[in-house]
């Protein structure tokens, strides 16, 4: 017997319909490439996404055709999120921080038909357009009068001129909720990048789950600042969960420095912000240097790489901002776990509470996880046993776009490439990326643990731990450190700083001071690049 409930496909267009009808006045504020602050609301965004849909029909794009963006976080990008997916096409957010050759490769692999780009990226598009063999239409995300006369890009038109003539009425098509809605290529640290292809259903289910109180706790009373780029796993799904809840959206545009972000938080009364640790490091430095305080920021979700304890402490204890440490992947839409405490943790001593907060968190409904040993046998949830982390659920990939790399699943589970423990309360803690774990004398050293200790030193701005070949121990850890401007610390000081904080054999053998640690397109430390930079390096005494 079937249930007698109405059947409605879970489509992204329904989010914008809802936001327009129930939160039409809900604000969407963007810092633009031009530098000014632009204000609009869900009603206007909905109308303009329908114009986008009409404009795409005008280009004769077929169902599932890919429309690429090369854009910062802003209202026009938001309109494309809904106009492209809502009309049945696939939004492909290209990462402008990649090398132009990679952008070409990815655009051709995705078979993008249209490219919409912010004017900051005009030089990139000028350099690559002739090699992007499938792109037929180029749209610059600007007013008509901001378009330079001769760009060399065939048929280039401004976004505003493109949608101006289109009607703001459009009947969103109904189709199977499993249809593709958007795609994102993974960082591609090895081999060619591969794409996760999200569906309408996976996107809506993910938006529901991430809005829950024990996830990101999104509501109509929030003012949300996604610092995480809209080209990094759909800004962690925030545009969708904001439309679902009617939260105010605040977009930073290209100004990602600490000062600009802080000013936007204050001016737009941001209550909730999301980003990778490197971004918050910049903002904390700015806030600390100027003796500033946050007046409205209540919580911040930090993920993408491990959040150093020193950062959690600074936010919580000094600024009264709750840190939600979260873990996920491009392949997981991205949310997997969020570190929100259970009742039993609330009465813990501050140090024990902090230990719980440091973990990457517990699974949200919709994400099942397990850890396994080298033979694939499941390991206990005791907070000690560590092994490869596998996940499954309705917003986790079943395979990559075009079947690249074959089936990634092992007995229906997706291997994350992370090594983790899970404790009896279900709190998962990443020990390392499996390729970053340091193997010393048959034992594993977590590079994250080594980095976290260094990051707690007052003179350290950034730290990255990598393994170096060692004739006796196989590998030994060293730590590359960027000093805070105006601060001093010597190699011996820093090594001494590890005393009592970790087992002796886990203390790095050496400290290498560097100007900067290479960061990837999404602001994560690129240890492969760091290894390349230090290829001439020799461990002391070897
Ligand atoms: P990406 O798909 O580029 O977002 O990368 C996903 C990977 O980032 C994960 O597999 C982890 O290795 C890493 N990652 C994401 N969030 C965290 C976190 N909170 N702590 C440690 N590593 C993380």
C-alpha termini separation: 73 Å
The fourth-level CATH homologous superfamily of the domain at 11-170 and 177-197 is: ANL, N-terminal domain
Largest sheet: 13 strands, mixed
Structural class: alpha/beta
GO molecular function: ligase activity
Domain AMP-dependent synthetase/ligase: 21-401
Pfam family, one: AMP-binding_C
Protein name: 3-(Methylthio)propionyl-CoA ligase
In short:
With 542 residues, the chain is α/β, with parallel strands linked by helices. The protein has 16 helices and 25 strands. The strands form 4 sheets. Strands 2-1-11-10-12-13-14-15-16-20-19-18-17 form a 13-stranded mixed sheet, sandwiched between helices. The protein has a 7-stranded mixed sheet with strand order 7-6-5-3-4-8-9, with helices on both faces.
Explain this structure to me?
- Belongs to the ATP-dependent AMP-binding enzyme family.
- Keywords: Fatty acid metabolism, Ligase, Lipid metabolism.
- Residues 21-401 form the AMP-dependent synthetase/ligase domain.
- The chain has 542 residues and is an alpha/beta fold.
- The chain has a 13-stranded mixed sheet, with helices on both faces.
- A hairpin with a 3-residue loop joins strand 23 and strand 24 (474-483).
- Helix 1 runs antiparallel to helix 2 and helix 10 (258-267) packs across helix 11 (277-290).
- 49% of the residues are buried.
């Amino acid at each position: 017997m079937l249930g007698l409930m109405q059947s409605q496909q879970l489509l992204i267009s329904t989010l914008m319909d809802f936001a327009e009808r129930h939160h039409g006045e809900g604000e969407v504020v963007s810092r633009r490439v031009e530098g000014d602050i632009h204000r609009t609301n869900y009603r206007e965004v909905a109308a303009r996404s329908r114009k986008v849909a009409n404009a795409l029909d005008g280009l004769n794009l077929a169902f599932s055709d890919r429309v690429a963006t090369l854009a910062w976080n802003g209202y026009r990008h938001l309109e494309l999120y809904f106009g492209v997916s809502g009309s049945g096409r696939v939004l492909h957010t290209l990462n402008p921080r990649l090398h132009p050759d990679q952008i070409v490769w990815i655009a051709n692999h995705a078979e993008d038909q249209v490219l919409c780009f912010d004017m900051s990226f005009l030089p990139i598009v000028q350099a690559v357009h002739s090699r992007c063999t499938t792109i037929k239409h180029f749209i610059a995300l600007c007013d008509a009068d901001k378009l330079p006369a001769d760009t060399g890009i065939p048929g280039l038109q401004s976004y505003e001129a493109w949608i101006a003539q289109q009607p703001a009425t459009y009947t969103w098509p109904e189709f199977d909720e499993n249809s593709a809605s958007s795609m994102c290529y993974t960082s591609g640290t090895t081999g060619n990048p591969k794409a996760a292809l999200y569906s309408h259903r996976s996107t809506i289910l993910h938006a529901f789950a991430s809005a829950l109180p024990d996830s990101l706790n999104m509501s109509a009373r929030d003012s949300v600042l996604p610092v995480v780029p809209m080209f990094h796993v759909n800004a962690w799904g925030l545009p969708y969960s904001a439309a679902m809840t009617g939260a105010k959206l605040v977009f930073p545009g290209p100004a990602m420095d600490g000062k600009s972000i802080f000013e936007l938080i204050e001016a737009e009364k941001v209550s909730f912000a999301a980003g990778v640790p490197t971004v918050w490091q910049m903002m904390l430095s700015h806030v600390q240097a100027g003796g500033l305080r946050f007046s409205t920021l209540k919580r911040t979700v930090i993920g993408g790489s491990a959040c150093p304890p020193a950062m959690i402490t600074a936010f919580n204890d000094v600024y009264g901002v709750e840190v939600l440490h979260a873990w996920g992947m491009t392949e997981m839409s991205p949310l997997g776990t969020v570190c929100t405490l259970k009742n039993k943790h609330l009465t813990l001593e501050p140090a024990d509470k902090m230990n719980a907060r440091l973990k990457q968190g517990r699974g949200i409904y919709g994400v099942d996880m397990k850890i396994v040993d080298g033979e694939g046998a499941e390991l206990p949830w005791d907070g000690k046993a560590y092994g490869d982390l596998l996940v499954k659920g309705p917003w986790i990939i079943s395979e990559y776009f075009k079947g690249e790399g074959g089936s990634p699943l092992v007995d229906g589970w997706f291997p994350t490439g992370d090594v983790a423990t899970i404790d009896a309360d279900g709190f998962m803690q990443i020990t390392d990326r499996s390729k970053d774990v340091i193997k010393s004398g048959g034992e594993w050293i977590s590079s994250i643990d080594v980095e976290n200790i260094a990051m707690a030193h007052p003179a350290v701005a950034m730290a990255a731990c990598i393994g170096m070949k060692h004739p006796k121990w196989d590998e030994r850890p060293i730590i590359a450190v960027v000093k805070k401007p105006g601060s001093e610390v010597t190699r011996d000081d820093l090594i001494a700083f590890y005393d009592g904080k970790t087992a002796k054999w886990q203390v790095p053998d050496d400290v290498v001071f560097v100007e900067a640690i290479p960061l990837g397109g999404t602001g994560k430390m690129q240890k492969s690049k760091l290894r390349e930079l230090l290829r001439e390096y020799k461990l002391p005494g070897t």
